[in-house]
Amino acid sequence: MTIYLPIAEVSVNAFLLLGLGGIVGILSGMFGVGGGFLLTPLLFFIGIPPAVAVGTQANQIVASSFSGVLAHFKRKTVDLKMGTVLLAGGMVGAAIGVKIFEILTEMGQVDLMVQLCYVLFLGVIGLLMFIESLNAIRRSRRKDYVPRKRSQKGWVHTWPLKMKFRTSGLYISAIPVVLVGAFVGVLSAVMGVGGGFIMVPAMIYLLHMPTKVVVGTSLFQIIFVAAFTTIMHATTNYTVDAVLAVLLLIGGVIGAQIGSVIAVRLKAEQLRILLAGMVLVVCAKIALDLLLTPAELYSIAERVAH
């Protein structure tokens, strides 16, 4: 069943969009990521203009993340205080990111910059996470291996304005938490992602949060940042396609519940290496699209004044 998307100005199979939303929803529930790092490139691949893909799928992230976080609330694996501090930084970062997106759009470079950002961030984060997770799995398989508790002391303990996060069992400075949130907020607006693929590793390796509360806390923060980003894009850049958003949203909500069930059955190292593998595959596909000669060297686009 083909459906016309008025803002994207293309016709796409509705069941394909539902399926894409479902896949990303599963990722959301499994890994604590909004799934935008995967969904936005997939929308590129099926012909959705990058600017519309970025603005619209942030809306889908809200639904899939909300569905996923409900499951984590039931298991009491959400640190609300940590999520709120991350959110404070995320809102500021999202506002800055939308302004950057607007400037790039006016320059006519937004499509190229979005894709370059994906190659850069997905490549670096995916590679580092894959190597670390692979080493962790190898160590755990050794017969003489004794699990070593990760040090809870680090540079986050040397900064002022310390706060106690009881659910995470941490007493650290709020400054790096806000900075992480702000950085993810910028990425959310510019790249059309929830920022979970950056947020989750940062929470584990920089803030030293326990893995069991990272997923739910990340989803909690993503809900509000993605919602704010959607509103900003809709009112500033006019790139939110409601029809596309609804189809992705329906699939995402269903998928998130399935993903949260799968997450309980896998070990932390297995979750991280699966996420890293998917990040690297998407990165490679985008890089190839940028490097290979396109089928059509020229395209005609109409610029609409709003």
Descriptive overview:
The chain is mostly helical. The chain has one domain. The protein has ten helices and four strands; from the N terminus they run ββαααααββααααα. It has helices spanning 14-31, 36-45, 50-74, 80-107, 110-141, 174-191, 196-205, 211-236, 242-265, 268-291, and strands spanning 2-5, 10-13, 162-165, 170-173. The strands form two sheets. It has a two-stranded antiparallel sheet with strand order 1-2. Strands 3-4 form a two-stranded antiparallel ribbon. A hairpin with a 4-residue loop joins strand 1 (2-5) and strand 2. Helix 1 (14-31) runs parallel beside helix 9 (242-265).
In short:
With 306 residues, this protein is mainly alpha-helical. The protein has one domain (2-143, 152-291).
Annotation, overall tally of beta strands:
4
Give the tally of structural domains.
1
> Strand percentage, roughly?
5-15%
- How are the strands of the biggest sheet laid out side by side? 1-2
> What percent of the residues sit in helical stretches (DSSP H or I)?
over 70%
Q: Structural class, from helix and strand content?
A: mainly alpha
Separate helix tally: 10
Distance between termini?
32 Å
SSE order, as H and E?
EEHHHHHEEHHHHH
Mean residue pLDDT? 75
Radius of gyration: 19 Å
Shape: globular
The main β sheet shows up as: 2 strands, antiparallel
Uncertain segments: 299-306
